[in-house]
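Below is a filled-in request sheet from our internal design queue. Each sheet records the structural input a requester submitted and the sequence that came back. We keep these sheets so that new team members can see what a complete request looks like end to end.

REQUESTER: design group, bay 2
PRIORITY: normal
MODE: inverse folding
CHAIN LENGTH: 238
BACKBONE (tokenized):
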């Protein structure tokens, strides 16, 4: 579904992404982890088009998108949910989602967009809050809204940027169940996460970054036992 080859991004003297290559298969849930400053957000920004790489190539569904603007990636089916949720606070949950469903496609018939919103609002458990102004939601509901907004763009691959940050453990478990439901509805997921219990519970496969490079990849237990990965985390903690 997604193929990344030799991606490099430099900020002055810092190489935030250094020859990053990875593949995402249809239907999988892939976690990208690594210590602070490893380059995870940079990678996500390169994939969603907020940053342009200095080198390398990104293919999505067999088409090159390396230099495509973010909205074109969204239309092709590459969606993104952000860590900082920024809904329109005075608009209802339903209206916020309608914006997602119509994003960049104002000619979409209203009925079609509303059908998408109705499906997504059920899937994400937000139906009881449909008419609530987004500014009155709890943090967990905010996170649901952000996932729902991204889903309304009808992604084939959804990029999640630390969407569990700030949640209590029981809320994080609910969010894990929601991401599983999203995958089961046919959406492939790539997520960045610091909470290891979440990574362990959710990821089919884990890619580990350190100093801009991919240093390990595989099932959670294998990467957690990998000496290079342990050194990256423990070394940085001192
Ligand atoms: N816009 C920028 N300008 C300059 N340096 C940047 C910029 N964005 C990121 N960096 C640097 O690139 C490196 C990778 O940062 P990045 O935010 O991608 O890491 P991360 O793994 O997402 O970290 P965290 O887990 O703390 O969010 C860091 O050294 C960071 O300071």
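RETURNED SEQUENCE:
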């Amino acid at each position: 579904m997604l193929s990344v080859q030799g991606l490099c991004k430099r900020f002055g003297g810092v190489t935030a992404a250094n020859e990053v290559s990875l593949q995402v298969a249809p239907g999988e849930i892939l976690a990208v982890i690594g210590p602070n400053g490893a380059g995870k957000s940079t990678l996500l920004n390169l994939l969603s088009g907020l940053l342009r790489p200095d080198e390398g190539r990104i293919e999505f569904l067999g088409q090159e998108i390396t230099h495509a603007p973010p909205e074109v990636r969204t239309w092709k089916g590459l969606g993104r949910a952000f860590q900082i949720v920024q809904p329109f606070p005075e608009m209802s949950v339903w209206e916020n989602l309608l914006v997602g469903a119509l994003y960049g496609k104002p000619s979409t018939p209203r009925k079609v967009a509303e059908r998408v919103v109705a499906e997504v609002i059920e899937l994400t458990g937000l139906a009881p809050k449909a008419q609530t102004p987004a500014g009155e939601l709890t943090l967990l509901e905010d996170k649901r809204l952000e996932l729902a907004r991204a889903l309304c763009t009808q992604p084939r691959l959804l990029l999640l940027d630390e969407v569990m940050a700030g949640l209590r453990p029981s809320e994080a478990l609910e969010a894990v169940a929601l991401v599983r439901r999203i995958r089961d509805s046919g959406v492939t997921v790539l997520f960045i996460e610091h909470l290891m219990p979440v990574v362990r519970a959710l990821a089919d496969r884990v890619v580990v970054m350190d100093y801009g490079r991919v240093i390990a990849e595989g099932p959670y237990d294998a990467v957690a036992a990998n000496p290079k990965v342990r050194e990256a985390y423990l070394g940085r903690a001192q």
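SHEET NOTES:
- The mean pLDDT is 93.
- The longest helix spans residues 169-184.
FILED BY: M.R.
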